[in-house]
């Protein structure tokens, strides 16, 4: 089965093609083809990579995102190098959809009704859901009636208990759909399954805290394979400090800014999502690599941004462990989680009361798919590579072979 995955975001467009057998593979397969465009202004690089290691780059106009996406997909079956002889070889297309709202919580075949529900949920995540609907429509144009499957970033957190899902405002908020939905669920769920494989444990025997740390950051408390708490909430803005997002702030600050600085809702949105976090504090970058480099050179605000990020991360890990009533393993994943030994070391430095102790040498090497805790650590600490595209491909195969609609 050939599965094409589209990961359409507000800042980038990623896509990958997988060849899957009939049985569930124990670990991810490398894609036959993958491609990426970073959205911006004017032109951007379209980066394409094939399974044999061949790579290509070309400039594409990002003024028309639909045309840019079509150009990306055309490299699958046309040009001097291609992964497919024909577009007809694609059996199913899977889409990462950030917000499914309260109705869409599990992978589902895309119909007109499903598209309408995704469109309505765009009020919660407008930049993401609209980009994902655009991807669905491009596939309809290019591939006709090929089955399409939506896999929801919010879906894994459907098991949150009411005490974790509700906000302490009027109960009517919940009746209006205002609740903690949680995000990064596709990768949190994948990491929980992969951690069980690495530790040779059954998923239903583990209490896990998974740390998805990239430009966007979230934690999840996972008990026996089920999400019971998470840091992101109604939107992906809540929770940890992030690259350009503030994470949780006192809502009284927002009221103050509205009254005293006469900010508009759009102005607040821009500040909280684009001008805060690591970038807002440091004025250097939203990229942790640049933050750490600047801090090492003596930039005090970069050091402050690093310290704030770690402080909130450490507090969040402890909170997730409290929700679980103990923890068996701590997982680091995504760009920062996988590649920054400095963040992992600083976050774990004061968590020995939970039984967390790192092996300094193992941590410094950032070995993916390995345990990096010391031999005497009661809690295992792992690095697991984020595999959202692979997880989406697996969900497509499972849905089609199970006969569910």
How are the elements arranged and paired?
Blueprint: E1 2-8, E2 12-19, E3 33-38, E4 43-50, E5 55-61, H1 65-74, E6 92-97, E7 108-109, H2 112-121, H3 126-143, E8 148-152, H4 162-165, H5 171-175, H6 185-199, E9 207-213, E10 217-223, E11 226-230, H7 251-260, H8 265-274, H9 277-282, H10 288-296, H11 300-324, E12 329-333, H12 334-339, H13 341-348, H14 360-365, E13 370-371, E14 380-383, H15 388-402
Parallel strand pairs: 1-6, 6-8, 9-12, 12-14
Antiparallel strand pairs: 1-2, 2-3, 3-4, 4-5, 7-8, 9-10, 10-11, 13-14
Helix pairs in contact: 2-3, 10-11, 11-13
Overview of this structure, please?
- The chain is α/β, with parallel strands linked by helices and 405 residues long.
- The protein folds into two domains: 2-152, ATPase, nucleotide binding domain (Nucleotidyltransferase, domain 5, 2-Layer Sandwich); 201-383, ATPase, nucleotide binding domain (Nucleotidyltransferase, domain 5).
- Helices cover 39% and strands 20% of the residues.
- The chain has helices at residues 65-74, 112-121, 126-143, 162-165, 171-175, 185-199, 251-260, 265-274, 277-282, 288-296, 300-324, 334-339, 341-348, 360-365, 388-402, and strands at 2-8, 12-19, 33-38, 43-50, 55-61, 92-97, 108-109, 148-152, 207-213, 217-223, 226-230, 329-333, 370-371, 380-383.
- Helix 2 packs antiparallel against helix 3 and helix 10 crosses helix 11.
- The longest helix is centred in the last third of the chain and has 25 residues, at 300-324.
- The radius of gyration is 21 Å and the shape is globular.
């Amino acid at each position: 089965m050939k599965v094409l995955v589209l990961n359409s975001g507000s800042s980038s467009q990623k896509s990958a093609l997988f060849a899957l057998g009939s049985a569930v593979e124990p670990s991810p397969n490398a894609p036959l083809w993958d491609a990426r465009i970073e959205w911006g202004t004017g032109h951007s690089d379209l980066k394409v990579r094939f399974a044999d290691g061949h790579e290509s780059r070309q400039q594409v106009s990002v003024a028309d995102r639909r045309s840019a996406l079509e150009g990306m997909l055309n490299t699958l079956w046309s040009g001097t190098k291609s992964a497919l002889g024909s577009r007809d070889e694609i059996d199913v297309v899977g889409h990462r959809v950030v917000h499914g709202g309260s109705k869409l919580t599990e992978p589902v075949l895309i119909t007109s009704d499903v598209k309408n529900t995704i469109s309505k949920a765009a009020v919660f995540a407008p930049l993401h859901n609209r980009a994902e609907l655009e991807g669905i429509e491009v596939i309809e144009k290019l591939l006709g009636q090929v089955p399409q499957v939506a896999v929801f970033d919010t879906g894994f957190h459907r098991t949150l208990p009411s005490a974790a899902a509700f906000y302490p405002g009027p109960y009517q908020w919940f009746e209006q759909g205002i609740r903690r939905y949680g995000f990064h669920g596709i990768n949190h769920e994948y990491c929980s399954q992969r951690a069980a494989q690495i530790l040779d444990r059954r998923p239903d025997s583990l209490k896990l805290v998974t740390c998805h740390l990239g430009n966007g950051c979230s934690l999840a408390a996972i008990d026996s394979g089920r999400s019971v708490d998470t840091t992101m909430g109604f939107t992906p803005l809540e929770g940890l400090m992030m690259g350009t997002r503030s994470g949780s702030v006192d809502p009284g600050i927002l009221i103050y800014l509205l009254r005293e600085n006469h900010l508009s809702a759009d102005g607040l949105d821009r500040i909280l999502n684009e001008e805060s976090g690591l970038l807002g504090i440091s004025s250097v970058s939203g990229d942790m690599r640049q933050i750490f480099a600047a801090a090492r050179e003596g930039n005090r605000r970069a050091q402050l941004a690093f310290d704030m990020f770690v402080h909130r991360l450490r507090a969040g890990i402890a909170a997730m462990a409290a929700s679980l009533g103990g923890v068996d393993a701590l997982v680091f994943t995504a760009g920062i989680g996988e590649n920054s030994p400095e963040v992992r070391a600083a976050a774990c430095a004061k968590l020995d009361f939970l039984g967390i102790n790192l092996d300094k040498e193992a941590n410094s090497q950032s070995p993916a798919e390995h345990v990096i805790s010391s031999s005497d650590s009661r809690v295992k600490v792992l690095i697991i590579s984020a595999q959202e595209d692979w997880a989406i491909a697996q969900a497509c195969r499972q849905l089609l072979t199970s006969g569910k609609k």
